[in-house]
Amino acid sequence: MKIGIIGSGGIATNAHIPNYIKAGVDVVAIMNRTRANGERVAQKFGVPNVYETVEEMLSSEQLDAVSICTPNALHKEQVLLALEAGCHVLCEKPPGISENEAIEMLEAAKRAGKTLHYGFHYRHRADTILLKRMIDAGELGDVYATTALALRRRGIPGWGVFTNKELQGGGALLDVGVHMLDLALYLMGYPEPKEVIGHVGQYLGSRPGVGLLGDWDYASLSVEDTARAMVTFETKASLMLDVSYMANLEDKDTMRVECRGTNAGASLFPLKLHTEKHGALFDEQPAYLQEHDPYEKQIQSFLEACRQEPDYRQAEEAVILHRIIDRIYA
C-alpha cells in the first residue's frame, strides 16, 4: 500500500508515520502548506515526495490511503478530497467541527466505497480492548450509566492552534474531552442520544498563570476552557461529562471513564471491576495484561480495514458524537 500524509506536525511524526513504516507499508508523500516543514519531516523518515497542497499530492500520486493530521477546521475539506480521489482515510480526532460535517464525510465515504476511520487511539489501548470484550460478553450486564472525565489542572497547550476557535472549532471539549466522550459512547455501543444538557465557559484561560504545557496566548484565547454535560439516551441509559483545560483540581491530569452495569461496574484508567459475589463486594484488576502502543494498534486496525469491505461504522458513530457536541455548545 502507498500512503500519503496530510499535515506534518507532532501527531504525524510521533504516531502516524513511524507506525505506517513499522507496519511495512510505503509512506510515499507528505503534504504541508509550509514546504520547509514538510521537507524536514520527509528527510527524517525517508519519504520521497513533498507537496504544498492536498490537490497536488492527490493528483500526482497513486495513493491507497491517507492520514489527515491537520487542524480540526480543515478535516472535512481534506477528507472529502481524499475520498473523491479514491483513497481510504484515517483522520485525526475530532472528525470535524459539527454534525453536518460528520454527515457530509459519511456520505462521501459511502459514495466512494472507501473506509473512513478517525483517530481515537484510546479505543486501541489493551485495557480498553479487554473491557469492551467483557461488556460485549454481558459480564457487566446492562450498562445504564457512564461518566467521562478529561480534566487538566493547568493544561492549555502552548503550541499549535489549540486556542484558535476559527481553526479548531472549539477548545477543551473538542481537544481532550472528545477522547473520553467517544470512549464512553463506544463502550456503551454508541446509543442514540435523547436529551443533552450542556455548558461551556471560559474561566481561567483568558488570564496569565502557570502553564504546565507551556505558555499559551491568553490574550487571544477564543475557545472554552471548561465543558460539562448530562446526556440521556433512547436506551434509558445516561452519561455525565466533565472536561477542563484549566481547573483548580488536585490532580494534574485525569483521563477516566466509569461504567455502571446491572451485574458489575468498571473504570478506566487503570482497568478495575466492581462486583458483588456471595454476599461480599469485590474490586478486581487484571493480574497481567499485555500492553502495546495504541497508536500502532490503531494504524494496524486501519490498514486491515482498508484491505476488506468498506468500513463506515466509525463514520456513522461520528455523526452521533458530533450531534451531542453540537448540543453541548448550543
Assign an overall shape: globular
The fraction of residues assigned to DSSP E strands is 25-35%
Number of helical segments with 4 or more residues: 10
Instruction: List segments where confidence is low: pLDDT < 50 over at least 5 consecutive residues.
Output: none
CATH fold category name of the largest domain: Dihydrodipicolinate Reductase, domain 2
Please provide the ordered H/E string of secondary-structure elements.
EHEHEHEHEHEHEHHEEEEEEEHH
CATH architecture of the largest domain: 2-Layer Sandwich
Query: Which structural class do you get from the secondary structure elements?
Result: alpha/beta
Which sequence of strands runs across the widest sheet? Answer: 8-9-10-7-11-12-13-14
What would CATH call the homologous superfamily of the largest domain? Answer: Dihydrodipicolinate Reductase, domain 2
Just give the CATH class of the largest domain. Alpha Beta
Number of strands: 14
What is the count of structural domains?
2
Largest sheet: 8 strands, mixed
Provide mean pLDDT, rounded. 96
Distance between the termini: 42 Å
Helix content: 25-40%
Radius of gyration: 20 Å
